[in-house]
Write a structure and sequence with these properties.
Length: 255
Amino acid sequence: MARRTIISGNWKLNLSVAEGVDLANALKDSAAASEAEVVVFPTALSVACVADACTDSAVAVGVQNIYWEDAGAFTGEASAPLAKAAGCSWVLIGHSERRQYFGETDETVNKRLQATLNAGLKPMVCIGETLAEREAGNLEEVLSTQIKGAIGDLSADQLKELVIAYEPVWAIGTGVVATDEQAQDAHAFVRSVVAEVLGAEAADAMRILYGGSVKPDNAAGLLGKPDIDGALVGGASLKQDSFNGIIDAAAAASV
Ligand code: PEP
């Protein structure tokens, strides 16, 4: 099955409202010219203004995290319905920095995933192993546990819009990118676990993105692999030249 490439940018805790709007505006032309779907994840503070700037453009906008309750006495949180009202269409869930610094677990990933789907937003769930886990030979067990924990008892029908981002923790923000073969092997394994849980048809349709030190000069090789359906980009998504370069690389990889 042909799966539409996604090039997504996780801005993390970077860029002011004005800087985010400027960057989003600078991505519009390459997003419009690209076959790939382009998504940016600004900070919660700038998401509404960036979404407003992206109205009627080919750049979609998402939040980097949501709480699983819709509203109430949950100081400091943002919810999926509020993200939708602010113009978001995507939610990033379970990024390794949230697992590492903010106590995210497979159980809370599942709760956030359900809340995202209930609000009619598209979820991008991050998984990935640490270097110690890889070196100990636990790659497959870690990925399998994370996927099964995230999906929980949701059905293939409910998860039609789910996108998985495979992000080896050792490659995030380090400049050490997985080789094309390491990434392809992990993606093929992720797809096999999705097939085991949701069936072959759902696995074939699911988009699985690679994340971890993606740059314009390594993107085409990764995106050219059969089970790699796009990229989640951190550092290189913060500058228009490098992010546009990765959007362009998606076109190069698909010819
Ligand atoms: C990320 O934060 O999801 C990421 C992949 O970061 P970087 O591209 O900087 O490694």
